[in-house]
Amino acid sequence: MSIDEEYLNNVLNLFFKFINILFEWVRDKFYVLFNIIFFKFVLMKKFLETNISLELLTSLFSQAPVGLAILMGETHIIANANTQVLEYWGKGDHVIGMPVLEALPEIADQEFPAFLKEVFETGKTIKGNKVKALLEKDGVLITYYFDFIYAAVRADQEIVGVSVVAINVTDQVLSEQKLQENELRFKGLTEISDYSTAIYRGEDLVIEFANDQMLKSWGKSRSVIGQTLEKAIPELQGQPFIQILQDIFRTGEPYFAKEDKVDLVVDGELQTFYYSFSYRPIRDVNGEIYAILNVAVNVTELVNERLKAQNSVKEYRALAEAMPQIVWTTDKDNQIQYFNENMLKFLNVAKNDITNFDFSKIIHPDDFATLKRVWNKSALDKVFFELEFRFYDAVNDRYMWFLNRATPVLDDDGNIKQWIGTSTNIDEFKTLAAQKDTFLGIASHELKTPLTSLKLYAQVLERMLRKTGDEKNAEFAKKMDVQIIKLTSLIGDLLDVTKINAGKIYLNEVSFDFEKLVLETVEEQQMSTVFEIEIHSQKVGMVFADRDRVSQVITNFISNAIKYSPNTDKIIVRVERVEENVQFSVQDFGIGMPEDKKDKVFEQYYRVSGDEQTTFPGLGLGLFISSQIVERSHGKIWVNSILGKGSTFCFTLPAVE
Amino acid sequence: MNSKKIVIVDDDVAILDSLGTMLDFEGFEVNTFMRGSEIFRLIETENKPNLILLDMWLCGEDGRDICKQLKSNERTKNIPVIIMSASRGLENTALQSGANAFIAKPFEIDDVVNKLHQLIA
């Protein structure tokens, strides 16, 4: 064997030894590259074993994509160096044959000479991983990072040199450094962020980082950092999160959750929280997922508030269902949104049939226009309304009276967003009320017949007694007649109310002198009272109304003023012209009434109540009848009053020119 | 003086009695009937009355129909008719049936007497 052949064999063996060492090292990081090299060399070996030439090997050696060198002897003379390693060194092939420290004096005080020495002396193989090297290139020291293997070169069991395999990993290291820097900067930012942030590294989900917010969310201390998520937060077992996180390593797909429920032990108690959060994969320079970034916002309060609102909606629904009334809601355009069970039953419709429900189909045609008017007006003023109208009763095939109330629900801008309504069946009440009115009508009519003859007998009696000169008894008969007049008036009131309720009050309208009527009526009233009726009047012109009915109102005002003025003896009557109207008022100095009762006095059957007032006689119909007469005569009626000081009742009627 | 003949038709005996007594007392010659149909018999057999006081709601009869009949009969159309009713609101329909006047029950006897004198004079 010539020297060349021996040398060649030596180099060849070394070469394949490198390859084997390289194999393990490269496997993880440069799998593809490794495969190519390995494949190439296996082929080469086969080829070389059969038909090898120095030329071929030298070419292979020089073309290898890794730095290769053989340093011989104690002074590490560069026996061989391929193109790649020369490029790393920044030197030409003139360095071959030079001791390495002579060729690369800048490494003298770096760690490489020590490594070489160790390998040469002990035969140990040294692997370096991302080792920093400062190499001079064009007179400038440049920082490189290398992965390298130093292995002993033996000849006949004796160490004769050191083989060098090196790969420049400078770019990778710099990227990693940059990534690390970014990561640090990111952690710094997230540490002070309001969002809960954490990073889980590896499929084991080791908590690499968690900011204070996240630790607070977990109810854990900083000691969990470095632990796996599963160990740090054992209550996550049985919840889906760990699986989701692990899946991301496989799929690479980020995961987003909105208001997701999570049970965590906080303050020693398993509690339910709601989080909106994201899991995003973090990739290294090679695009491999090495960690997951978790950013989360605690929305528990928000969700709880909403759940509470939903529950209260449920409660109100339950309340609506439990009510004996009909309950409904519509949107702002009066489209039905909801009917309670009672309504569905009444209408004989299914719950699903209520969208686009046509109200006009179930409301009595005579009532529909009124409802529309009232509802529109209410919508305009954004106020509650109340109206009686008839619904079609599908079960009994007839219309039924309901008392309907609806109230608008306003949004934050004050616009109507919904109507909530109730309808109470008042059909029976209405029937009874109508029966009552009919009964009162008949009763008062029937009462009038005996009253007529009673009155006649009293008058006959009075006249006969006067004829015989029995003036004393004649006076008694006259008094009987006065009482009959009072009885007649009471019955008249009852009859009037039934007429008003039935909408049948009849006004015999004529033109008459208003002041003259007042003066006549006052004169009549003055005859039957000890009160002084003080009159302040003037000519105010004519009115067009029912003269008897207007007289009835004036009489009612005066008799009320007297009735509710115990301990006084004067009332004041005024007749005035106020713009287009004539105005009549009666002022008394009696008991008066509180502010909140002022409108009530004009209601049907309303009587001034209270301990003292209960002693005042009357049916409580007079002012109701008066208000109806005035309103139907296109006038206005009202009262000004101070409790304990007295009242002034007023009404106006339009004057005719 | 010749007393004027008044016919009162009402289904209430007390009204017939009290009003009859009163008008008698006031110097009228009074005939009372409980049924409207009886007026027609009277008119055929006796002298015509000077005035008829007619209740509106007779038992089973409508005073306004009787009034219309009287007013459509040549022999009786000139006899003044006063319709009486406890229903004040029916004054218009009473006058539409041809009645010369309307009196709401209960009434002041003086008002009735004044009306009688006005219509008979």
From TrEMBL, chain B:
Q: Which residues carry this modification: 4-aspartylphosphate?
A: D55
Whether tRNA processing counts among this entry's keywords is no
Q: Which SUPFAM superfamilies match?
A: CheY-like
Gene3D superfamilies documented for this protein: 3.40.50.2300
Every copy of the Response regulatory domain together lies at: 5-120
Q: Name one Pfam family in it.
A: Response_reg
Q: Which SMART domains match?
A: REC
Entry keywords, A to Z: Phosphoprotein
UniProt GO BP? phosphorelay signal transduction system
Spell out the protein name for this chain.
Two-component system, OmpR family, alkaline phosphatase synthesis response regulator PhoP
